[in-house]
Amino acid sequence: MDGNVLTFKGRLVAKGFRQVHGVDYDETFSPVAMLKSIRILLAIVAYSDYEIWQMDVKTAFLNEKLLEDVYMTQPEGFVDPHSARKVCKLQRSIYGLKQASRSWNLHFDDAIKEFGFIKNEDEPCVYKK
User: Fold this and answer.
1) Which of 29, 57, 58, 123 could make a disulfide contact with 37, Cβ separation 3.0–4.6 Å?
2) Are strands 87-92 and 118-119 parallel, antiparallel or unpaired?
3) Interatomic CA distance for residues 26 and 10, integer angstroms
4) CA 45 to CA 90: how far, in whole Å?
5) The whole model's pTM is what?
6) Phi/psi of residue 74, each to 5°?
7) Where are the domains of the chain?
8) Cβ–Cβ under 8 Å, residues 31 and 125
9) How many angstroms separate the CA atoms of 18 and 125, rounded?
10) What pLDDT, on a 0 to 100 scale, did the predictor assign at position 43?
11) Mean pLDDT throughout 60-78?
């Protein structure tokens, strides 16, 4: 009304709380970096004048194919009236799934190793070359 453009972002989120272990997913573990490890790493980098790279992927969970068959009801507002009783089979991981972070981490681990990086044995979130 006042001439300003209103923008809204929508995100499809699965109801992961309804997933059943052993049926919809097997493992949910995904490594998390310890703060003390990051501090030690930064101290070594600063002392030795090494180069360090950090990355952030904004839509990380939306990039990995699912290993399990996961189904969800049609999203509210997008229900096909001719097929209202049908469900959607997810092909890729989305926000809300219990295995989303693990599937992304497995995909990332494979991709980063293709560039010649090696995972640190003591800190699984740190790779070195």
Assistant:
1) 123
2) unpaired
3) 29
4) 42
5) 0.69
6) -65, 140
7) 16-128
8) yes
9) 29
10) 95
11) 84
